[in-house]
Amino acid sequence: MAARKVLVGGGSGFIGHALCKSLRKRGYETILLSRTPGHSKITWSDLKKRGELPECDAVINLAGENIANPMRRWTESFKADLRESRIGTNEILTELIRKAAKPPRVWISSSAIGYYPTSETAEYTEDTPPQPESNFLAKLCCDWEQSAILPADHPSRHVTLRIGLVLGRDGGTIKSMIWPFWFGVGGVIGSGKQFMSWIHIADMVGIIVHALESDNVQGILNATAPHPVTNSEFTTAFASALWRPAFIPMPPFVVNMIFGQERGILLLEGQKVIPKKTMESGYSFMFSDINSCLLDILK
């Protein structure tokens, strides 16, 4: 029988909002964990004080400060917030799950494809072994995953989602890109050869629900579409979906000047990530190619 009550960390964010809306349509009751109090919400500080989970059948954590937040400078303070909002929240939940008298049936934690090294040629699946932590983002992802691990004999089924570039109408990358392209000033970023491992928000939610409801699913799942594209291919598809030109490139030095070198890696370097285990587990993608994805979002 499917779980009916789900605790969702980061439930008011871009992915979390779409997920909770979908879960409620499917008959679930959602309990939101948030930094700010509100109706149907529990704050992280209150949860830590009470020292126990509310009664629930599943726990999902999507919490995390937006790494591409244009309003935050790339400072040591911002890096600390990135770690605390991911690793700190996982540590709270895993501790409470471990000591729960009636632990949740399912524990779904999130990570990101920054776990994999950047490359213009290599292809990565869930079977790719850990690589040297070459930069802050790679180390953040490795520590993020480690903070969610339960003891091997724990009864809760654990799934970790390595999330790619999530595309949707109501937030994320699309929201920040649409106006430059609409006014004809969009273009290729850097060399354009860097891979973008993307996923439609509907499939992002679909994979989480699949992990929640499929008793055979556990371990790592890549939350990316089956066909990654280069930045050049993405730019062409995006401009085509808007019926706009895309001829003004953004050179690397401009990216680094605006975003800083460490955050600029997100735009200038990429990973070709394939959701091998996700597909093997039985998930069927609604949007597997970038053209159908962007036409659906931008129609």
Structure report:
- This protein is of the alpha/beta class and 299 residues long.
- The chain has a domain at 5-168 and 197-226 and 273-287: NAD(P)-binding Rossmann-like Domain (Rossmann fold, 3-Layer(aba) Sandwich).
- The chain is built from eleven helices and 13 strands.
- Strands 3-2-1-4-5-7-11 form a seven-stranded parallel sheet, sandwiched between helices. It has a two-stranded parallel sheet with strand order 6-13. Strands 8-10 form a two-stranded parallel sheet.
- Helix 3 (76-99) links the parallel strand 4 and strand 5 (106-112).
- It is globular and about 60 Å long.
Brief descriptors of the model:
11 helices, Rossmann fold, 40% helix, globular, 299 residues
Please specify the SSE layout and strand pairing.
Elements (H helix, E strand, L loop, with lengths): L4 E5 L4 H12 L3 E6 L6 E3 H7 L7 E4 L14 H24 L6 E7 L10 E2 L11 H11 L10 E7 L1 E4 L3 H11 L12 E2 L1 E3 H13 L5 E5 L5 E2 H12 L9 H8 L1 H8 L3 E2 L2 H5 L9 H9 L1
Helix pairs in contact: 1-6, 3-4, 7-11, 8-9
